[in-house]
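Running co-folding for 1-deoxynojirimycin.
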Amino acid sequence: MPEWLSSAVFYEIYPQSFKDTNDDGIGDLQGIIEKLDYVAELGCNALWINPCFDSPFKDAGYDVRDYKKVAPRYGTNDDLVRLFDTAHEKGIRVLLDLVPGHTSDQHAWFRESCRDEPNEYSGRYVWTSNAFEGIRDHPYISGMADRAGSYMLNFFASQPALNYGWLDRDQKWMSAPDSEEAVATREAMKDVMRFWLDLGCDGFRVDMADSLVKNDDENKTATAQIWRNVRDMLDREYPEAAMVSEWSNPYQAVNGGRFHMDFYLDHWHNGYNTLLRDYECNKTDNSFFRAEGNGDISRFLRDYLPKYEAVKDNGYISMLTCNHDTPRPARTLDRDELKLVFAFLLTMPGVPFLYYGDEIGMRYLDVRTKEGGYHRTGSRTPMQWDRSVNAGFSGCEEKDLYLPVDKSPDAPDVQTMMEQEDSLWHAVQDLIRIRKQYPELQADGPWLPLNRQGHYTFYQRGTMIIGINPSKETVSLSADLSRYVPVYSIGNVYKGERAVRLEKSSLIILRKTEEGGI
Ligand code: NOJ
């Protein structure tokens, strides 16, 4: 386990929308380099950058045309190396986005595999043996290539599935997971990883990490076996490299695949969904962090607790404010509610991820789809840096912007929020600082919920107690608190010898000391 993960706080950057330095309307690597001091000032010490590789951008870069080449619109490979080096000088690690399940249909491997003549890449993708034969229960395309066969899709129509084999096989054309061609795909992906790790990257966020072997069993054992093989390579050759999976099943990803961390994604009715986006599956929004709702922490705990217990000795569950696929939390939560969201994410075990702009409460915008974003596009708009033209994102003409900037009169921006002492931005900065100051609040510190239900939560992390009350009621916890002192609070809170009371929308962090105090 790379030791640096225990104190890591990640910042996700969607490169298109972070900072444009050549005024072409789209973000670039130089823009990220120029904003590294900002990331450090906020307190984050690691980045996840969405795919920045050569691509026709039918799925915002998740359709890779060349794994080893930076997309010209972002810069060059040398720029990315400069980004790694500058980030490292500032104590920031950098994860790239690895897309192992599929490529673009314009990737050279795919073009070769479309040819009628057998070649090195004929087995690199999933093909049937005749153009009139489909693939049961999976999307596929026929009639687009000279090769007599249909090819399987892993996501959109432009993203053919790479071939890692099939566990359950009933057709001759289905490769076994240990076949020569399936192993060659795995080794090709390791080659891509080595390429960037040798240039200085610190690991990968892995796209659809569970999608490799087809007809895998319910535990995804064959896919997990591939990731264990990858992890063995990393442990031997790059022990400091970190891997986080887009899987949302830590039993399989962490315990099975030996990922260091697994994202707790926004899946309907799971614990994470009940915290911020309950409105997606219920008519009444009872998200735990929504003051007006009727949230109940038991819904989160039922899902999270067994997962946490099962993986805590092997790796981490990563909670996130949102990502490039999910609505921003500010869609339904106001700034006070968002402060409590950050307080929670930054005092829970595991490794937290903040999505760019969430630290200022950027909104989810109603904008036209871009590069296969569809409803996700509203979470991908340009970062709002200041009160200047295009919110300081780019000096281009408005019509040339990659996506429109939030122009509402009260749109938040970094400059204004830094100037206001009680802003969301400062609360986030304070909370990251406190997490860094007290190792018990970090990834490995113990965690024990002190109440199992209610529209509030108290939990213990070693010698620290955290109380968060998003509701409109006053709540309290009775305990011997004579030796506890407050470290941080938001809203109206009262701490006595035998109880702590939290009025509406408030938070307290307590720490046990030798001396004690009130
Ligand atoms: C998950 C990514 O987060 C998403 O943006 C992408 O469209 C799909 N995987 C396909 O790669």
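Result summary
The domain at 446-512 is CATH 2.60.40.1180 (Immunoglobulin-like).
The two ends are 39 Å apart (CA to CA).
Job closed.
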